[in-house]
From TrEMBL:
Its main location: membrane. It comes from Planococcus notacanthi. This is Heavy metal translocating P-type ATPase. Keywords: ATP-binding, Cell membrane, Ion transport, Magnesium, Membrane, Metal-binding, Nucleotide-binding, Phosphoprotein, Translocase, Transmembrane, Transmembrane helix, Transport. InterPro entries: ATPase_P-typ_cyto_dom_N (IPR023299), ATPase_P-typ_P_site (IPR018303), ATPase_P-typ_TM_dom_sf (IPR023298), ATPase_P-typ_transduc_dom_A_sf (IPR008250), ATPase_P-type_domA (IPR059000), Cation_Transport_ATPase (IPR051949), HAD-like_sf (IPR036412), HAD_sf (IPR023214). Pfam families: E1-E2_ATPase, Hydrolase.
Amino acid sequence: MAFFKTHIELIAAIFSGILIVIAFTLEHQNLYAYSVIIYLMAFGIGGYAKAKYGILKTFEDKQLNVEILMILAAVGSSIIGYWTEGAILIFIFSLSGALETYTMNKSRKEITSLMKIQPEAAWLVKEEKTVRVSLKDLHTGDMILVKPGERIPVDGVLQNGQTAVDESTISGEALPVSKYKEDELFAGTVNLSGAITMEMTKPSTETMFQKIIDLVQSAQSEKSPSQQFIERFEGRYVKVVLFAFVLMLFLPHYLFAWDWNTTFYRAMVLLVVASPCALVASIMPATLAAISNGAKSGIIFKGGMHLENLSVVRAIAFDKTGTLTRGQPEVTDFVIRQGMDKKIAMAKIAGIESQSNHPLAKAISDFIVLQGITPTPNLTIEDVPGNGLRATINSEEFLVGKPKFVGEELAETFEDGLLEKLANQGKTVTFVRDNEGILAAMALKDTVRDITKSTIEELKKAGIYCIMLTGDNRKTAAVIAKETGVDDYIAECLPGDKVKELKKLLKKYEYVAMTGDGINDAPALATATTGIAMGAGTDIALETADIILMKNDLSRIAYAIRLSKKMQRIVKQNIFFSVSVIILLIISNFFQTITLPIGVIGHEGSTILVILNGLRMLNRNV
């Protein structure tokens, strides 16, 4: 039942198409009365939604629109006996309306997806007791307890405890961020390790996460330049055609001494041949064929407008984590102290790291296991929130974590300053210390995808400016930018900063695409002319984006651009051809050199030709 309500317009359009086929068959079997009844049913079922919208919109805006023109054209063709023509006009227009409605309904789910992530309640600390309360009952200055694994409910400052926080929803950075007293915390991020107490500094309606929601809503409400142009064109087209139709009803009788039958006949022919059936067919078949082509190639386009916009994109902004990079930390360097048995040392480290659920610990443990080494069993481990791990193996103590935790001086001097060298390469370094000093250093990095560099090169050859926008620090961003070959990069970007940078690019390049995968990318994806999401991205990124790369293959961006440019060429060919035919038919009708059947053949013939031309988009060689 829910499916029927959601897709009622599409079902009605398809059913009206079936009725048209039945009526056409009956008409050619000389069952004219029955065919007229079924044609009327097709008119009513297929045209109801558009007719209702057109009439209400006319009263609301106090001006006629294309919907009214289509109704008049369908009625006019029926009056002079061409029921099929009128029914086909209704069918094509109702189908396009159904697809528009589907796209609009789909976009409404975006904000709902965001809302589900934001916590609805929090643990309020009051008189040394914790009480579960709704966010709306919290006030600035309240102390809130956040347990391990919970999302932080509001923006605030850490007061008691230490922890590591997953801030990927805000910054997009895959690596957790250590938090200490007086450090800032953001709503929607995840507390990974220790229980903490924080002070609320902003109302729930003003949090960073709420700003993300507001930015998405704002960007979605803005109409693209192309959409505004189409709306202006439609209004003018309707006025010109209806004005010409009214003149044709009376003027030829007095100026050229046409009899009233001829005058009415020619006016009806004008209304039929001037209907935008061929114009609609110029765009829809080519667009649907291009969308189908993209789907087969792992590219999901959410509508024809996004194909149009992509064809003129002059700059593309890329998120780093999960887009240009894989989005998961990987061990790139593993250095053991000289004189130590490598396998024994790695077995001990794997035994320690396998006891932790921290992303870095899991990456190190997985790396060692892949070497065929079995982790050392039967050890005790203590999690030191915000620092690392303390473990005991056969009465020997091991510390695993950041330089400050294991001994900053020891870490900096290990292997002749290895720490500085690895840090300059944009890597995160974890150290292991035993009773004799630093046992091992392990560098981890979110590595660049294999296809990234060649994709960036191809886009740059096509004259497209490529820039990386990341929430990561400047040093790491500089390394990744160099590895990928992007033209420029902006580091330490919060969601609002990405939107500001996108607006600067839009001002300079006019048509800009944004490629990302995280919740923090959603506002930028919505702000860009075209939002492109990685298929493995978050739900909100997938919902907000205009285009989805299902296989996380960045090379599909270049293919999508080529596809969109080919579609635009075909659409322009179709529009030029269909408009030329309409003008020719109108002029021929005025000079009475064509009959209604010839006008219908010319009109429908041009429609068929532009449809066939549009279907060339199914060819995957672009």
